[in-house]
Design brief:
This protein is mostly beta strands. It is about 0% helix and about 50% strand.
Amino acid sequence: QVQLVESGGGAVQAGGSLRLSCATSGRTSSSYAMGWFRQAPGKEREPVAAISRSGGSTSYADSAKGRFTISRDNAKNTVYLQMNSLKPDDTAVYYCAAAGRPIAFREYEYTHWGQGTQVTVSS
């Protein structure tokens, strides 16, 4: 089992940046592909970015391409989401998730979830 704890959320103005972190405990994070998802008020949860176990492969939602970067430090059991050029539409609760496979793109592939961290972007 693995436990996930997100941090780094907050309130920023449009154009600003935030870096989210997801600390894992329990089973080593290198055993899992990791992903970031988000859920805005009144909307379904959607994928943002994913990274393979090794960190060698990444995938992004169209809304995140060119602005967000997912990375991981397996020695620190931590996954990051660097978010630049933030927009009001990025306002959501951001969730970190783990999948017990080399890489995962779909929500149903993820078996472990954090509690989420709020990101609010004002115009």
